[in-house]
Design brief:
Blueprint: E1 6-9, H1 15-26, E2 30-34, H2 39-53, E3 57-60, H3 67-81, E4 86-89, H4 104-132, E5 135-140, H5 153-173, E6 178-185, H6 191-204, H7 208-219, H8 228-238, E7 250-253
Parallel strand pairs: 1-2, 1-4, 2-3, 4-5, 5-6, 6-7
The protein binds nicotinamide-adenine-dinucleotide.
């Protein structure tokens, strides 16, 4: 379906981003990977995508807390793969703390990566997409872009910001063939959430699996984790012609979290 298209997925060395990169590669798209991690493991992922799907896969290890690095990632993708058709702004981090104790450096880091990188990436990609009359900006926000939880102030602020920024992007791009949407996942069992499960298990003296169930029970009525593959399928759908008129909206994939 996406043969000949080029997708850049930020934060795609693990978790949701990696599943999205694989999901697009399975549809024939060439992929620019990005993220942190150990070089040999990343190379195994990159070459595995090329081997499994017969597409081109490149990796750029840019640290996306820096605006110029985000813009450089987009330009590197265009240089290496010839174009950019789909940008998935996915890289993100979490830190939990009460507001009055929230470390300023953590606040700055979360806003830089979870929010400002979305601005820089979009600003760099839009001219290419508008020029070719087709493009997809897919922002991985969160249920925390729609509702809040205590002790996640920076994350909640950044993700609400992403949802607002997505709407502005959609309005500015309307009629150009470029759409912008935000996917808002509930709990997905990736490294980002495993850390929170471990913290809960430790604080309450629970087994890891019991803590995982407790985490779900507090927020996610389905009592099941969303899978990275389900999010990849949603991202691929947003890149399809069927989704050409879906723009400026949020798509919650959250087991009922935000229905309460
Ligand atoms: P993850 O920790 O598995 O993946 C995060 C990715 O971002 C990794 O590839 C990591 O290397 C990369 N990254 C971290 N710092 C970076 C930096 N400075 N520059 C470039 N890349 C960097 O986490 P995940 O759960 O897959 O999260 C992916 C996105 O999904 C995040 O934006 C997160 O907020 C969002 N999300 C996750 C959940 C969940 O329950 N896991 C729910 C809603 C939204």
């Amino acid at each position: 379906m996406l043969k000949g298209k080029v997708v850049v997925v930020t934060g795609s060395t693990s978790g949701i981003g990696l599943a999205i990169a694989r999901g697009f590669a399975a549809q024939g798209a060439d992929v620019m990977l990005n993220g942190l991690g150990e070089a040999a493991a990343i190379e195994a992922v990159r070459s595995g995508i090329e081997r499994d799907h017969g597409v081109r896969a490149f990796f750029d290890g840019a640290d996306l807390t820096k605006g110029e690095a985000v813009r450089g990632l987009v330009e590197n993708a265009v240089r290496a793969l010839g174009r950019i058709d789909i940008l998935v702004n996915n890289a993100g981090i979490q830190h939990t703390s009460p507001i009055d104790e929230f470390p300023t450096d953590k606040w700055d880091q979360i806003i830089a990566l979870n929010l400002s990188a979305v601005f820089h990436g979009t600003a760099a990609a839009l001219p290419h997409m508008k020029k070719q009359g087709w493009g997809r900006i897919i922002n991985i926000a969160s249920t925390h872009g729609l509702v809040a939880s205590p002790y996640k102030s920076a994350y909640v602020a950044a993700k609400h910001g992403v949802v607002g920024f997505t709407k502005s992007t959609a309005l500015e791009a309307a009629g150009t063939g470029v759409t912008a949407n935000a996917i808002c996942p509930g709990w997905v069992r990736t490294a980002l959430v495993e850390t929170q499960i471990t913290a809960l298990a430790k604080s309450k003296g629970l087994d890891q699996e019991v803590a995982a169930r407790e985490l779900l029970a507090e927020k996610q009525p389905s009592l099941e984790f969303v899978t990275p593959e389900q999010l990849a399928a949603m991202a691929v759908y947003l890149a399809s012609d069927a989704a050409a008129q879906i723009t400026g909206t949020t798509l919650a994939v959250d087991g009922g979290w935000t229905a309460r």
